[in-house]
Amino acid sequence: MDSEKIGVFLLDDHQVVRRGLKDMLEDEPDFEVVGEAATAAEALARVPALRPRVAVLDVRLPDGDGVTVCRELRSKLPDLNCLMLTSFADEEALFDAIMAGASGYLLKQTLGPDLVSAVRTVGSGESLLDPRLATKVMAKLRAADQQKDPLAQLTVQEHKVLDLIGEGLTNRQIADRLFLAEKTVKNYVSALLAKLGLTRRVQAAVMVSEIKSGQARHR
C-alpha cells in the first residue's frame, strides 16, 4: 500500500454495495481499498493483518453487526477509524456505535461525494457525527450516569435536605437548620422523593443510611 494513501477496508454483505464503494473511493487519488469482507467473521480475521486506516462497516450483517466488529477491531487496533454505514437512521445503533469507538455514522442513501468526504474526514482522525443525533446520544449518556448514581440529579439544596432526613429531622427542624420556610422544605422533600422514585420520606432515610454504610465499607 502506498504510504501516502488512506487504506480503506470495506465490510458489507452486499457485493454490489462493496463494488460501488470501492469504485467510488479508488477514483480518488488519496484512497486505496486494501480489502473487503461480506461477514463479521471475515472482517475480524482480515483487518488486523491489513491494518487499514479506515474501516467502513455495515451495521447489519448476516452473522452479527458492525458495531461489535468496530468494538473488537478497535480493541486490537486503537488507531483504526471506523465509519458505520447503515440503511436506517437508528438512534440506538448510533449510541452503540459511539460507545464502541466509531468515528462516524452515515446512511447508505448519502450521496457519493459526501460519502467520499466522510471517509476522508474519518481517515484524517476527525469525528463525523450528525450534531443533532450526537446531542441526543450525550443526553442518553447523562441519563445513564444518573441511573448509576440516583443522587446525581439532585440539586445542592436537595442534597442537604436529604442528608437531614437521614439524620431523622422533621420538616420543621430542617427548616430551622437551613433557615428556610417549612413549606419550602416540604417542596424540596416532594421534589427529591420524585427524582429518586420514592414515595415516603422513610424510604429516603433508609437510602441515606445505605449510602453512608456503603461509603464506610469502601474507606
UniProtKB/TrEMBL annotation:
Domain Response regulatory: 7-123
Top-level taxon of the source organism: Bacteria
4-aspartylphosphate PTM sites in chain numbering: D58
Keywords of this entry: DNA-binding, Phosphoprotein, Transcription, Transcription regulation
Domain (HTH luxR-type): residue spans on this chain: 147-212
Phosphoprotein recorded as keyword: yes
SUPFAM superfamilies according to UniProt: C-terminal effector domain of the bipartite response regulators, CheY-like
Transmembrane segments: none
Name the UniProt record assigns to this protein: Response regulator transcription factor
